[in-house]
């Protein structure tokens, strides 16, 4: 298994757990983290033995943002020419479900990274925010877009303009977070959700992900047609035959991703 400089990767029972591992910098996201997370996620996506990815932090932080020390000397021409941080799009191109388990600070790029996953769960100690305005800049990895889609204009403006933090309970109320759990149950809950999804058909799970994501890209009519066509396609899978037969025969399905 590949070793990474800034993340730990653990694979078991079809679940790849990626843990951000720059605790001294509160897991600040530099270019190496970008490279490591996206490479590990792509490797997991390509590995037939892996069905679900969990991305989490450690200690006090999920990630306290893009690395301010790295960014402080970055200038416009370099950022523009290199399309700085556009590489994070590689993570959102991953087809397998990604659970982001937020254990602590998820600020700036950290909040944006958490939102790149498919199911966001949080410990009671999680803190979310887009504090870029305090640095004289603005969100740059999706904060103004994904956060607004997740929580609406009112709270997105509030968070991005004031730079304040919101706790896990507020984040759940606002619709950013799927579930809040006690801090010491976060990893187990992420695992439980991952195991539940890992038992499904990978094809059906991939289609769910595509269909829900389409809701953010299309009109309602286009999205409904897309969903319906995906449903029609699912009828061509062995997993559909198996899933429905298992229901009728009152037994557990055995999916083969085919
Ligand atoms: N970058 C670099 N280092 C950081 C970061 C960061 N984002 N956050 C924390 N650290 C470091 C600190 O410098 C400190 O290091 P050292 O011990 O060497 O001084 C260490 O982590 C511990 O941090 P603190 O001492 O500050 O810990 P506190 O408990 O006092 O405070 C906070 C915790 C509140 C989380 C505080 O660290 C903080 O405010 N951090 C910065 C949060 C922030 O502003 N994040 C947004 C960054 S900008 C961003 O994310 C833009 C993304 C888009 C880029 C896309 C470009 C296209």
UniProtKB/TrEMBL annotation:
Keyword entries, A-Z: Lyase
Source species of the chain: Brevibacterium salitolerans
Family: Belongs to the enoyl-CoA hydratase/isomerase family.
Pfam families according to UniProt: ECH_1
InterPro entries: ClpP/crotonase-like_dom_sf, Enoyl-CoA_hydra/iso, Enoyl-CoA_hydra_C
The name this protein goes by in its record: Enoyl-CoA hydratase
Reaction catalysed by this enzyme: a 4-saturated-(3S)-3-hydroxyacyl-CoA = a (3E)-enoyl-CoA + H2O; a (3S)-3-hydroxyacyl-CoA = a (2E)-enoyl-CoA + H2O
